[in-house]
């Protein structure tokens, strides 16, 4: 290193005691110029600063050489916009420094690229918004000295408040609530961990049970597993989470504090396909549903039977379904389900024909199909909130086996019988008749699409 008029000028080098280079750069008239590099004592690049940029741009690196962070500096302090990265190159966080201190809103991301936290920095405190995998706020509150402090609010994935906690140095008292604000649960928290005895309450305010959370470290999964053990009033009952119970009993084992409500659904768009379905379902969160469905079929839907042309067919159908739905646990607010149903049809058929013995121009020939069936179905339900209020989309397909009764209201008349020749009149059936589709081409499946609203039980 040389000096001109007492100022550094030229190349600069410094070394660790083991002989590895520590810093390398260039001075010009006492100022740092060009790119300066800083190394670890094993020879790998630690950081570099580009003084050609205004303000200077600093980059920090992982030991494998991948970019760790980059941003502006002022003197020796971080200043302005900075970005931090995971070792795999995906963004970890972005925000602003002022004189080496984080300020304002910082956004932090999971490795899959989704936002996981928004932290607002102010003096010694941080206000944090924790986000779920849909980037919706699930908790918000303050952090002081790496501990939760003051009031925290907790939300479900629809934004509904489900609980609050007041913290002092990371220790808090949590109060959980139902959607109407009534008490659902309470217990103690150590930051994000539940500790001690927790209490669960029914919607009517009755204490349903107590339990403890036990945290067991599982090295194979790299984290904590929560095991719940009952501490009920007589220390003998067990609180069961139905999402972890295998086999058929999962669907018939109530969850403590589970949502129960009514789902009202219909689909007016189906009128384009000559029917309108509507249903009412008593829904138990992510495990069970009992549904009464009514399907009105009118073919052709937008035409009155009095306006039919000669030998033009017409039918209308009243169809009731009583369904029991067994839900699988939700994934991304969607649930596969299956179940059984009882199905009752009463379908009336009409056709206008010319009766030479009658004085009127047309005579209506009527026939009735009545069916009773048992069936199985498979479906998928998408809900705004599987544990609360919101919109619902439901699609299902059913296969029925049943018996049919066919009767006519015009007596014996071979000419009229010919109008109904394409109707399947066999006693046992796998579908209800559609006059406009030949019986050998009808599909023995029924598809239903419903759009509805989930509401709480009154």
Structure description:
By secondary structure, the protein is an all-beta fold. Among the domains are: 123-239, Outer Surface Protein A, domain 3 (Alpha-Beta Complex), CATH 3.90.930; 260-456, Porin, CATH 2.40.160. The chain has one helix and 29 strands. The strands form two sheets. It has a 20-stranded antiparallel β-sheet, with no helix packed on it. An eight-stranded antiparallel beta barrel has the order 21-22-23-24-25-26-27-29. Strand 19 (207-218) and strand 20 (223-230) form a beta hairpin. The termini are far apart.
The termini sit apart by 84 Å
Mean pLDDT: 83
Q: Supply the CATH class of the domain at 260-456.
A: Mainly Beta
How many individual β-strands? 29
Strand content: over 45%
**What kind of sheet is the major sheet?**
20 strands, antiparallel
* Approximate shape: elongated
Structural class: mainly beta
Rounded radius of gyration (Å): 35 Å
Tell me the series of helices and strands, N- to C-terminal.
EEEEEEEEEEEEEEEEEEEEEEEEEEEHEE
Which residues form runs of ≥5 with pLDDT under 50? 216-248
Q: Tally the helices: what do you get?
A: 1
Summarize the structure.
The chain has one helix at residues 414-419, and strands at 2-4, 7-15, 21-28, 31-39, 45-50, 57-61, 67-74, 77-85, 91-98, 101-109, 115-122, 125-131, 137-144, 147-155, 161-168, 171-177, 183-190, 193-201, 207-218, 223-230, 260-266, 275-284, 288-299, 313-327, 334-353, 363-383, 390-408, 428-429, 446-456. The protein has 458 residues and is mainly beta.
